[in-house]
Amino acid sequence: MAKKSLPLSKVYSLLESGPTVLVTTARNGRSNIMAMSWHMMIDFEPPLVGCVISDQNYSYSLLKATKECVINIPTLEIAEQTVGCGNTTGAKTDKFATFGLTASPAKQVRAPLIEECYANLECRVVDTKMVNKYGMFVVEVVKAWIAPSVKKPETLHHIGKENFMVAGKHIKLKSKMK
Length: 178
What we know:
Layout: H1 11-15, E1 21-27, E2 30-36, E3 39-43, E4 48-52, H2 58-66, E5 68-73, H3 79-86, H4 95-98, E6 103-104, E7 113-114, E8 119-127, H5 131-134, E9 136-146, E10 155-160, E11 163-167
Antiparallel strand pairs: 1-2, 1-5, 3-4, 4-9, 5-8, 6-7, 8-9, 10-11
């Protein structure tokens, strides 16, 4: 197949693998929501996740101070609220009220769950070695929740600017190797 040159600034759109998530943090009685698409699984058990959060984001200082958060996984049903959370600063806005999202108490951390998300991962920061240079926090999932009523979640995957892909089609592939 014929190929053409791709600008290096577009490379991440080819590798963006995980769903866009909503990260909640809380400090001094105030909760915040941040949309994040730069994350990756690092280990299975305990589940470790690498989360890249810019020091320009309000959530960065909250996570750095409290060392806990919730990774909430939204579906297509709340796509507009998800994008809104990503385009608004929590320093000046109560995103729960503005975007009509419901905060529910977590069991292991002070940051709230987002009720409208089909899955919620309560997390504690376990490694900050790459925070200052790359903004990458390594968090351990200490409690996980999932809505069993959502059988095939359609998750949002950010591929640059206002562009997203929707995942949700499930297929099984068996290896032909013996």
